[in-house]
Prior knowledge:
Elements: H1 5-10, E1 17-23, H2 30-42, E2 47-52, H3 55-58, H4 67-70, H5 80-85, H6 91-103, E3 107-112, H7 115-123, E4 129-131, H8 139-147, E5 152-155, H9 161-173, E6 178-183, H10 197-206, E7 210-214, H11 220-228, E8 232-236
Parallel strand pairs: 1-2, 1-8, 2-3, 4-5, 5-6, 6-7, 7-8
Helix pairs in contact: 2-6
Amino acid sequence: MKNNFIKDKILKSKNPYIIAEIGINHNGDLKLAKKMILSAKKNGASCVKFQKFIADDYISKFAQKAGYQKNDKKVTKKSQLEIIKSCELNIQQLKILKKFSKKNKIDFLCTPFEIASLKSLIKLNIEAIKISSCNLNNIPFLKQAAKSKLPILLSTGMGELKEVKEAVKIFKKSNSPLLLFQCTSNYPSKVENANLSVISSYKKLFNCPVGFSDHTSSMTPAIVSVAKGAVVIEKHF
């Protein structure tokens, strides 16, 4: 196996490992994405993370918009599919951003949302696979990720404990290095809903490193999560 991203980068980090979740906040603009990578580096992030998806395969034309989208005058007349598609990056663009990140000495990760995107990222020689909460119970997707033998960073927002156990079982069976994220899937999430006690539970139940995917607008939950044992913080950027 190649280097173990979790062991060699996250766990060996002198300070808590910080992932700047750029996601689709570049709005599909490669120049803006590069500016955000530089800004993340300047502000002390250990890693930047993007998203890979094929909007037409992933988003229903009937999908409803989120509350913050409904209040955004720029996208009033656009459907959820149109909004997300305008932020889509192809694999060649992600290859450029991966190379740009390496040049600027900041780690690069990307979340695939369906199997086609997962396979394309594996071909891109991604160092680890970050799996979004929405795929926690997508068993075919998880099994495909497990086949890669790559380190897995798995978010567990909205999941029941039995779903987390089933997902962990899949990656343990394939001997994939695994890190679990406690995550509350609201945007933004209230501080009182951070549910940081889950970090202690995951450490005890699964004997693997744990992180916190922070959707709050406060820094307090991230600080407390580190005190609870989180070794990595993912923050929307």
